[in-house]
Amino acid sequence: MTKKPTSNDDFDLENYDLAALADAGAELALKAPHNGAPLLVAGEPVVICMIGSDSEARRKAERVMLDRNIKARQSGGLTAEDIDNSTVELLAACTTGWRNMRMGGEALPYSPKNAMMIYRRFRWIREQADAFCSDRANFMKASLQH
Question: Which of 25, 26, 21, 33 is nearest to 128 (CA)?
Fold first, then answer.
């Protein structure tokens, strides 16, 4: 079981089970692309719930993506669009939900399909999500809060 590390002097590998921490997930509070201010709806942050890059679900999605890309490359058909789509699919696999996401004045319900849509259409959200789920420190912080 992963314990909360109290300091770097208290090192024990059990305290750094990054797969377990990544599986537990963390919340990304979206920031406005023009000024970095937190995005809010009725005073509440717009949040994307994500699993980290060390999670088993992410690693499984990566293996599927890599296998597909290897097959496409071997057949001479791997394109930049294929790689771009793989990135969107991988981020969608790391997204487990959200709060206060709105589009066209209406609440946008979470679904894997909607996650892929926002990552394709809104590159700034995609960039924030990619950076967030790749930064292990975000998942360590989440474990320290519990």
Answer: 33
